């Protein structure tokens, strides 16, 4: 499972930070950062989700008010 985070879409509400500790506040930019991720496209960051953090990653995606977070299973199908 992996997460794709569109940082350009992020509006800095930080609900994701409260739900999954892979996200952290970047108060200088007014947006969240996805720790340990790599930038695969301009402002699109991707990180693999550890098995024991899948629920938290999905919940972070569900609470994002602007749908900046997408979760994909190992087959590449979007699950959130």
List low-pLDDT spans. none
Structural class: alpha+beta
Rounded mean pLDDT is 98
The total of beta strands comes to: 6
Query: Given the structure, what is the number of helices?
Result: 2
Describe the structure.
With 80 residues, the chain is α+β, with helices and mostly antiparallel strands. 19% of the residues lie in helices and 32% in strands. The protein has a four-stranded antiparallel sheet, covered by helices on one side. The chain has a two-stranded antiparallel ribbon with strand order 2-3. The model has no long low-confidence stretch (mean pLDDT 98).
What would a concise description of this structure say?
This is Ferredoxin. By secondary structure, the chain is an alpha+beta fold. Helices cover 19% and strands 32% of the residues.
List keywords for this structure.
80 residues; alpha+beta; 4-stranded antiparallel beta sheet; two-stranded antiparallel sheet; Ferredoxin; Fe-S_cluster_ET; iron
Q: How is the topology of this model organized?
A:
Elements: E1 2-6, H1 15-19, E2 23-26, E3 31-34, E4 38-41, E5 44-48, H2 54-63, E6 69-72
Antiparallel strand pairs: 1-5, 1-6, 2-3, 4-5
Protein name: Ferredoxin
GO molecular function: iron-sulfur cluster binding; metal ion binding
InterPro entries: Fe-S_cluster_ET
